[in-house]
Automatic annotation (TrEMBL):
Lineage: Bacteria, Bacillati, Actinomycetota, Actinomycetes, Kitasatosporales
InterPro entries (alphabetical): LolA/LolB/LppX
Keyword vocabulary terms for this entry: Signal
Organism name: Streptomyces melanogenes
Protein name: Lipoprotein
Residues making up the signal peptide according to the UniProt record: 1-31
Region (Disordered): 225-244
Length: 244
């Protein structure tokens, strides 16, 4: 069975306000200050395509690392962005199990003996960083691109380039949460925001780093580039239609 700390890490967390405000923002964790500069329109177009590329690549395999409660919680999952569902495995404090989540909540099944059916426990999201990270993963895909011109006006920054899994990615700090107005005014609020996007030359998203708590270590979401079907999970059965 799960210990108290790892059960708490997966059973207490989730912030509804994360989905809009934090998803199109940048980070303070990458890129030296003297490297930062506003994005060009071409770079804004790449940034605008990132969430669409994730949506179109699904079901997508992801690897999530969440610093929480003095340990790292690791999750490996398949995410179906069209269905807004994800299912995979977690590991925390040397214990493991299954985890599934959708827009309504999280289901957790402690590690079981091979061949036994998972014993799922369903709950709503809370404000713990693990739940916030799970919701972040779901919200990283969109079935349409952003408006590149508005995006360029709202404060995203170029941070530099890094190599990851044999590919070169450009790192971008996205628009600040207070900069989403359509007035064209200069962004207000803090100079940077808590999410970094790693984007390739075609607009593909390779990694997202997000600081979900002030001054904390970033959550890391890696898109491994593998496509896999979403396994069966503890989803509510669809309501059968009544014959007429």
């Amino acid at each position: 069975m799960m210990g108290h700390t790892d059960r708490r890490a997966l059973r207490h967390g989730g912030c509804a306000a994360l989905l809009t405000a934090a998803l199109l923002t940048g980070t303070t964790a990458c890129g030296a200050p003297d490297q930062r500069r506003p994005v060009t329109l071409e770079e804004a177009q790449r940034l605008a395509l990132a969430r669409l590329s994730v949506y179109e690549s699904g079901p997508a395999s992801v690897r999530l690392s969440v610093p929480a409660a003095g340990t790292d919680v690791g999750v490996e999952a398949v995410v179906d962005y069209a269905a807004r569902r994800a299912l995979g495995s977690y590991r925390a404090l040397g214990r493991d199990g299954r985890v599934a989540w959708d827009t309504a909540g999280v289901s957790v099944a402690p590690g079981e003996h091979p061949g036994t059916a998972p014993r799922w426990s369903r709950r709503s999201y809370t404000r713990d960083p693990v739940d916030r990270a799970l919701r972040l993963v779901l919200a990283l895909g969109s079935d349409r691109p952003e408006n590149a011109q508005l995006l360029a006006q709202s404060g995203p920054q170029w941070l530099g380039e890094k190599r990851l899994r044999g590919h070169t990615y450009t790192l971008f700090a996205g628009p600040r949460p207070a900069a989403r107005a359509l007035s064209g005014a200069q962004p207000s609020g803090p100079p940077t925001s808590p999410v970094t996007y790693w984007i390739d030359e075609k607009g593909g998203l390779g990694r997202v780093e997000a600081v979900l708590t002030g001054g904390g270590d970033p959550v890391t979401v890696d898109f491994t580039g593998r496509r896999a079907p979403l396994p069966p999970g503890p989803w509510p059965s669809p309501t059968a239609s009544t014959p007429v």
